[in-house]
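Provenance

Sequences were taken from public entries as deposited. Structures were produced by running a predictor on each sequence independently, with no templates supplied. The record for Alpha-galactosidase from Microbispora oryzae is shown for reference.
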Amino acid sequence: MIAHDAGQRLWVLSGPSSSYVLHLGDTGLPRVLHWGPRLTLEQAASLPRLPQPSFRPVEDFTEGTLDLTAAGGSRFGQAGLQVRFADGTRDLELVHTGWRGTDRELVLTYADRHYPFTVESHYRLPGGGDVVERHLVLRNGGEPVTVVRADSATWVLPRLNGYRLSSVHGRWGAETLPHRTELPYGETLLTSRRGVTSHQANPWAMIDDGSAGEEHGAVYSCALAWSGSWRLTAQRLPTGRATLSAGFGHDPVTWELGDGEELVTPVCAGLYTEGGFGAASRAWHDYQLRHVLPHPGEERPVLYNSWEATGFDVTLAGQTRLAELAARIGVELFVVDDGWFGARTGDAAGLGDWRPNPDRFPDGLGPLIDRVHGLGMRFGLWVEPEMVNPDSDLYRAHPDWVIHRPHRSRTEFRNQLVLDVSRAEVAGWLHRTLDELLTENAIDFLKWDMNRPFTEAGPDERLWAGHVRNVYDVLDRLRAAHPHVRIESCSSGGGRVDLGILRRTDQVWTSDNTDALDRLDIQYGFSQLYPARVMGAWVTDSPNPYTRREIPLDFRFLVAMAGVLGVGGDLAAWSEAELGRAAELVAAYKRIRPLVQHGRQYRLLPPDGDLSAVQYLSPDGGEAAILVWRRARRFGEEDPGIPLRALDPGGRYRDRSTGRVHHGAVLLTHGLFPELTPGDYAGALVHLVRERDSARDTEG
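Predicted structure for Alpha-galactosidase:
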């Protein structure tokens, strides 16, 4: 809820366990007096009376405390809002002009002292959690204004004994690897200049005082809902203050606002939690399940994807055979990947021509779709609609539709170029093409890929932002017209994962690297912000097609069970024993799927040791699923007990496989001792169900 003290010009934005307190002091600029444990309005109203830092002649005492940081005056730190007026003036002198709001939303309004330029700072409290959503609306009422930077939010941290920055880094095949380091003085920039979220970084960050652990300590975090270029600046000032500021765009891209035009920034969400990084992750997971995902209550089906089995050699007979085998092992969604359309017999031709290849599918996709549906599965299809091959009918008809600059080379990756979806005619074509594909065929699922970054894009801000917004618009329109279709976001693996794309898709492809051992690290970092409910994870062949590592089938399945289970191996080459075991493991996953996809996740042991584990707990605490993985067994040592989390210490929990009963207090202290097979690459799934205690239930 949002409470207001009119006399002090103070607002308190409170969730169940935290508060964010804003105050308009003598300067008229919004200072953050508190971000932390929940305060009442009366308690918050006492904060302006606390001693303030003494004035220093060459420093602004508000530096590092402002919720809206506009460049100008004696503020020399990082400024989230920077403009250039037509006469060359770069300083913004904002004056508070009013506010409006409800118990869940607040808008503070400002105007420049001289120029007809206004700013609205929006705050929203989605119900049921502690996340605060923020964005800006900039309006120009006169001569053109250049917006150099417009961060959606600047988050002011309290004074801490230290500052540690947590984020993820990576590359193709090694996405979302966690990284924690002391925040240095100055400005630390996390960014993507690629036109997509990127494999190399992800638009979120967490700050703690250096002492937080997985289950203890205060954590401050923010995440940007944007699927294009972005930047997030963590600033540590000599005064002992620190801030996080996040927004879309990157240098040197700017936005030109003409008379009467406005710029609306994407949402940046912020969160304060107690209980360490685990509690922060669970709060972010809960927020996405409640307020971000379009169909949060659904269980994502077990899927099969044909790519690693067939590559570009897609035929009706081959796909039908794979579908029959997939149905045998319990798959619920069969997805045909690249190679079904146009002249697509390799990666050099066909992108942009989204009609079934007449040689491979002379009667269209209908016969295959009917067979898949007849086997009791849903049907999915891979598309990459933002891309085009120069060797395609689309490119030959519209070579000007790609992102390019005059007198510059057209850089190709994987023999493809990026369509300029910011252009209305390109976005219109994209929507019509996919709408026809979905209308003419009984397709249940699209794997929407985007395999390369922008090049030769120039500084045109309407391209960089317009491309993303038009992709969002196409997705929104397709979902409205085809409400039964579900969509997976893919970008050459995990290159487009963020809160913006997740508002419009149902899951994401985490990484092209399906090696089970590597996936332990990738999935651990992914879980820091994103829930298992959206994390696509496949079981593929051994040796792995990417790493050539040989790993047993059970271990590969147990790793993939930590998210949305998929199978991507060549089932036609699997033995009867392997197919039979796969069917057993798929059935086991389906039993724990409600816990994995909708339960609370506890990272019990990180993947940097020989033994790692994760626990999923049902919302009512009555069931738990524990996945345990052993990389290697060294020196013949016995596996230690793994203490579980958040169980009822007075409860008793029965193992559904063995029937053994465990006491909650023992599981919480001495731990679980799962039975792992000897040797390397061993794993276990333990499914615990709390037994009813008639006496206790009656007393309760």
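The longest strand covers residues 132-140.
DSSP finds 14 helices and 37 strands in the chain.
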